[in-house]
């Protein structure tokens, strides 16, 4: 699947989540958004505040991205195994990922305007963007981030881009789109 560039290609590939009055198209939502579990072994956590981590069974994204999302997480898991060395137990891999906060999400689908341009929909509205460890990788200038370069590279290999180069950097943000 090719990464769409711009809203015309995003709408052509994923459909339009909005009604004419800018409200959520519930029929589109039911047909398009699913909660995708991480691959076996993973445990994801939703971060709603600096002190609150809630275990979650998956992330709500567009159904067309299920395989890509799971492939990225499998690649991250494999990288962790390689870094630990030997044949680590799943608990050791989960601990390694958690120590780097690579299992903490701020969520995927969220129907709302774009923070950069309120006249457009956020890519979260399409279910094609995910935020990771938002407390430590905030949307701000100057950029502050803890997510490692290799992590972004693994997303990029599956056609995802990230917000590190936005006018106001958003290093928590990965998206399956460019030019929007």
Notes on the structure:
The chain is an alpha+beta fold and 180 residues long. It has one domain. The chain is built from five helices and eight strands; from the N terminus they run ααββββααββαββ. The chain has a six-stranded mixed β-sheet, with helices on one face. The protein has a two-stranded antiparallel ribbon with strand order 1-4. Helix 3 packs across helix 4. The radius of gyration is 16 Å and the shape is globular. The model has no long low-confidence stretch (mean pLDDT 95).
Task: Jot down its keywords.
5 helices, single chain, alpha+beta, about 180 residues, two-stranded antiparallel ribbon
Low-pLDDT windows of residues: none
Number of helical segments with 4 or more residues: 5
Question: Over all CA atoms, what is the radius of gyration?
Answer: 16 Å
Supply the number of structural domains. Answer: 1
- Along the chain, the helix and strand elements come as HHEEEEHHEEHEE
Structural class: alpha+beta
State the end-to-end CA separation. Answer: 18 Å
Determine the strand fraction and express it as a percent band: 15-25%
- Report the biggest beta sheet as strand number plus sense, adding barrel if it closes: 6 strands, mixed
Query: What overall geometry do the principal axes of the alpha carbons give?
Result: globular
Helix content: 25-40%
Whole-number mean pLDDT: 95
Q: What is the tally of beta strands?
A: 8
């Amino acid at each position: 699947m090719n990464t769409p560039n711009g809203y015309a290609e995003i709408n052509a590939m994923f459909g339009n989540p909005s009604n004419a009055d800018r409200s959520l198209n519930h029929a589109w939502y039911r047909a398009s958004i699913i909660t995708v579990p991480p691959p076996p072994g993973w445990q994801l956590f939703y971060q709603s505040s600096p002190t609150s981590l809630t275990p979650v069974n998956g992330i709500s994204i567009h159904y067309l991205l299920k395989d890509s999302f799971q492939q990225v997480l499998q690649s991250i898991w494999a990288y962790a195994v390689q870094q630990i060395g030997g044949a680590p137990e799943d608990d050791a891999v989960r601990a390694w990922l958690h120590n780097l906060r690579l299992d903490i999400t701020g969520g995927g689908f969220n129907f709302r305007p774009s923070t950069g341009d309120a006249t457009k929909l956020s890519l979260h509205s399409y279910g094609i963007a995910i935020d990771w460890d938002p407390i430590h990788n905030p949307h701000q200038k100057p950029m502050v981030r803890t997510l490692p370069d290799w992590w972004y590279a693994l997303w990029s290999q599956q056609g995802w881009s990230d917000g590190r180069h936005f006018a106001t950097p958003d290093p928590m943000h990965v998206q399956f789109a460019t030019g929007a």
